[in-house]
Specification:
2 copies of one chain form a homodimer. With 338 residues, chain A is of the alpha/beta class. Chain A has helices at residues 42-45, 93-96, 122-125, 138-143, 147-157, 173-184, 197-206, 216-226, 242-251, 271-277, 288-300, 319-327, and strands spanning 2-8, 11-16, 28-36, 55-56, 61-68, 80-83, 116-119, 126-128, 165-169, 189-193, 210-212, 232-237, 252-260, 268-270, 280-283, 312-315, 334-337. In chain A, helix 6 links the parallel strand 9 and strand 10.
Amino acid sequence: MKGTVLHGPRDVRFEAVEVPSILKPTDAIIRVAATCVCGSDLWPYRGHWPTPEPVRMGHEYCGTVVEVGDAVTKVKPGQFVIGSFFSSDMTCPICLSGYPSSCVDREQVGAAQAGMMRVPLADGTLVATPGTPPAAMIPDLLTLSDVMGTGWFAAEAAEVAPGKTVVVVGDGAVGLLAVLSAKLKDAGRIIVMSRHEPRQNLARAFGATDVVEERGDAAVARVKEMTGGLGADSVLECVGTQEAMMQAIRSCRRGGHVSFVGVPHEVKIDGQELFFSHVHLHGGPAPVRRYLPELIDRVWNGEIHPGKVFDLELPIEDVAEGYRAMDERRAIKVLLRP
Amino acid sequence: MKGTVLHGPRDVRFEAVEVPSILKPTDAIIRVAATCVCGSDLWPYRGHWPTPEPVRMGHEYCGTVVEVGDAVTKVKPGQFVIGSFFSSDMTCPICLSGYPSSCVDREQVGAAQAGMMRVPLADGTLVATPGTPPAAMIPDLLTLSDVMGTGWFAAEAAEVAPGKTVVVVGDGAVGLLAVLSAKLKDAGRIIVMSRHEPRQNLARAFGATDVVEERGDAAVARVKEMTGGLGADSVLECVGTQEAMMQAIRSCRRGGHVSFVGVPHEVKIDGQELFFSHVHLHGGPAPVRRYLPELIDRVWNGEIHPGKVFDLELPIEDVAEGYRAMDERRAIKVLLRP
């Protein structure tokens, strides 16, 4: 069997790896129907996170269960399932309070950019679709494994609600799906910060009402101008850089809500500025598992098509080209078929 | 007339100042019944905030209206009133959304450590008591001008609710009244971080169930031990230092709520740590004005006695001794009578 391995900066190889097997009685093995490259995969790819030894890549997946451990009782071989990038038992107090991505028993789910993969805590982590999905639905379902659930969390954590004015900082796949999520939550106005025309177009298709091309202080000034000098009710930070975080906090009205859902990279928030900004701030690894039942339903019913963020599809053998296309921003998000 | 003036580090004088007068038609002039020294007054007093020129001090006050400007229609001479440290119009969108301390028309209210003072935007800023209060009630009412309202905001911003486990970081007057506020909101368990016996005793009198004397990582470890390894539901940071902020974030369970209500002094929050802590973070200048009607009611009915935080009372002429007593932590909070 072959899988995706990162050997060092910009050195991704599809090469021989061990076939995954049940290591714990709570595990399941899945035949991967589709996987993809995440914005966060680019941090180690670009060398911003060190890779001291070769590392298996991929944490977004959906597919068919082929084997389960002895302690797995809900998930059955043959089911089509989707899971999150963190495993969760769904029984601990943190899971029960709605934060399965911080489950006390969580493990990082990895090695998904391959034909087969192991998923820990299968009964908690995986959610089965009502049946075998048609091929055309697979990209939509795949997004629920991370990027759509993360956009949805961005909207929830920033308390997007009917009629509110929303700003989305970032036009990557998460930002675009944060726009879609804000639209599904009936936001009154959705301002996306983007300077790339194809991404602006997709944002508008997902429900954005306004585009701000400025960055930094100029972007903040534009938002203030558009909101009677006050700032937006909800600001969704979907990048993870210092500039994006400050742009988000400064674009928000006092007493408003800022969410941040991309892993922050060298971000420091000044306590005194945050204090006087008066915003609510909430973020973290999206509790994607919590949203799976509802979002699967919306995809299954044809209500949403988050898979539109995939603008490049490759056979998994060409995974290295997928990373390159995303690194060079030639693609918004790359779908890989084993 | 005399008032309190800070000339430089640890140089507070009660000296001749101008008699306040109506500067804008929305102003009121108050004869101050009682005022006090705030923890935040100690920042400039200690020289941590620069004082390039002499500055009038004091922002906590209650007293009797003696004069109002032409545009003031609700507040009347003769009324006993309490106001916040920021003026507010109570009509702008930020006030209407519950954040009068970030009112778009706000001014800092100052020069309260004196016999008379000017209050801007009097109709919005001031709330009258149902009648002239008995002398014994004045300390309780005075706390509503800042310190009790700030403790109350700490509890609200950290979403304290019946049965929750709460940690209060800080045993200053705000921390102690945050304990009282958590008790009034029916918290199940209230853990106060304090190593000063008189403050521990007052905290217990206000409703604290547990005291943690450790600091830093050891304090966090104690809280984890007391909460099944998870951390507290709500953590109220009432200090404003880096150590207190990190102690608060690390003492909170994932998905829990951290509030911070003391002006942060050289605090930097690491984005990645905040991300993986998964907490909600909210703070800022307490919207004290929002709480005045409810809290006046509770004091008027004799339900609460937040004035217990005053453990030293001085004639205002001795204000310099009041600052010294708080600086040296000989007093929790000093009440000054003009």
